[in-house]
């Protein structure tokens, strides 16, 4: 086994953990809405997964990807630059939009309940941003796997 293969394995496993964690958020949200008594627990669970599992995995994904880009591939390769661009967009949207919307959703739930306008607005924003981020993540995986030449 070479160092490159081990690095590539860590990179792929990080992608599986990061994107896989994100994919569960919709399932958890639907489950939480079916039993409002557990909605707060579900939202806090999503926040925990995002903060402590998905985001660190995305960080490791970036580090391992950059190491491979500089040592094995060329950082100037279009598919690598495309993947990095998507990654940056996802990081900015996650930090600037999704994280705050999820926090507002939890705060509105605690303060006013799931039927409140504030909660519904925060839920809609988190759901919309989350779906867009999901599409971006799938596209990033597509670019990394298929390495299109554009």
What does this structure look like?
This protein has 150 residues and is mainly alpha-helical. Helices cover 87% and strands 0% of the residues. The chain has helices at 3-34, 39-71, 78-112, 117-146. Helix 1 (3-34) packs antiparallel against helix 2, helix 1 runs antiparallel to helix 4 and helix 3 (78-112) runs antiparallel to helix 4 (117-146). The radius of gyration is 17 Å and the shape is elongated. The model has no long low-confidence stretch (mean pLDDT 96).
Helices and strands in order, then pairings?
Blueprint: H1 3-34, H2 39-71, H3 78-112, H4 117-146
Helix pairs in contact: 1-2, 1-4, 2-3, 3-4
The number of strands is 0
N-end to C-end Cα span: 32 Å
How large is the share of residues in beta strands? Answer: under 5%
Number of helices: 4
**Major sheet, described briefly?**
none
User: Which stretches are low in confidence, meaning pLDDT under 50 for 5 or more residues running?
Assistant: none
Range of helix content: over 70%
Taken from the alpha-carbon principal axes, the silhouette is elongated
């Amino acid at each position: 086994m070479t160092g490159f293969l081990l690095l590539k394995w860590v990179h792929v496993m990080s992608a599986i953990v990061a994107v896989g964690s994100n994919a569960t958020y919709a399932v958890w949200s639907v489950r939480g809405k079916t039993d409002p008594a557990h909605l707060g627990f579900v939202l806090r669970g999503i926040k925990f997964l995002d903060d402590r599992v998905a985001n660190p995995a995305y960080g490791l994904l970036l580090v391992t990807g950059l190491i491979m880009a500089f040592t094995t591939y060329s950082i100037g390769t279009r598919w690598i630059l495309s993947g990095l661009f998507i990654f940056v967009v996802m990081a900015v949207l996650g930090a600037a939009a999704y994280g705050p919307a999820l926090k507002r959703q939890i705060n509105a739930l605690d303060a006013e309940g799931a039927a409140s306008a504030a909660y519904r607005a925060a839920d809609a924003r988190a759901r919309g941003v989350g779906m867009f981020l999901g599409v971006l993540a799938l596209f990033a995986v597509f670019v990394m796997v298929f390495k299109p030449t554009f």
